[in-house]
Amino acid sequence: MAERDDGVADVLTAASLGDTDKLRWLTKELGVSLVVPDGEEGPVLRAVAGGHHDTVRFLLAAGVSVDEADADGRTALHRAARSGDLALVQILVSANCDIDARDSSGSTRCMRRSRASSDFDARNHAGIVPLHYESVRSLPMVAPVVEQRRQDELDALREAREAEEAANTARVRALLAPVDQKKKKKKKKPKTRR
């Protein structure tokens, strides 16, 4: 295989080692892209595998996909959850990763525990349910993070719905205002007999 000169190898090595300063230098001074070709394990996955929180934050802030996956479809969240690194899980969830991402076998390491979830009884190809993964993989610590994100999403939806309802009410009142004024004018005029 020919040696690469596009800087990708340097990016991947720096991410694996958690060398955020080198990543900054590569991107700022040399203009190296943090995006790797399809089929290669990306820098976020490598930084997560090494438990490098600051490097993960840097990569995400630089626009690298939080949902990049390895050849088996496992995302950074799969790796962080499997390693039991709650801080990394929180970083990834805060970056709006796909908490329902499934790997190539249909498994997810961070199954939904929200009561509102219609997928709580979902089974992968082997018939394993989310609760099994949480008990076997020691993931109960992930549930509060996921539940908080779900609650935040529900709160945001409720607030958006309330704002939309208020806007719709205001529009209807504005449309009805001329009709209401005509009704008031009719009430004020006394009827004259002929």
From TrEMBL:
The keyword Repeat belongs to this UniProt entry's keyword annotation: yes
ANK repeats: 72-104
Entries under Gene3D superfamilies matching the protein: Ankyrin repeat-containing domain (1.25.40.20)
Highest taxon, organism lineage: Eukaryota
Keyword rRNA-binding: no
Protein name, entry field: Uncharacterized protein
Record keywords, A-Z: ANK repeat, Repeat
Region (Disordered): 166-194
Basic residues bias spans: 182-194
PANTHER family noted in UniProt: ANKYRIN REPEAT DOMAIN-CONTAINING PROTEIN 39 (PTHR24171:SF9), ANKYRIN REPEAT DOMAIN-CONTAINING PROTEIN 39-RELATED (PTHR24171)
Organism whose genome encodes this protein: Thecamonas trahens ATCC 50062
Coiled coil ranges: none
One Pfam assignment: Ank_2
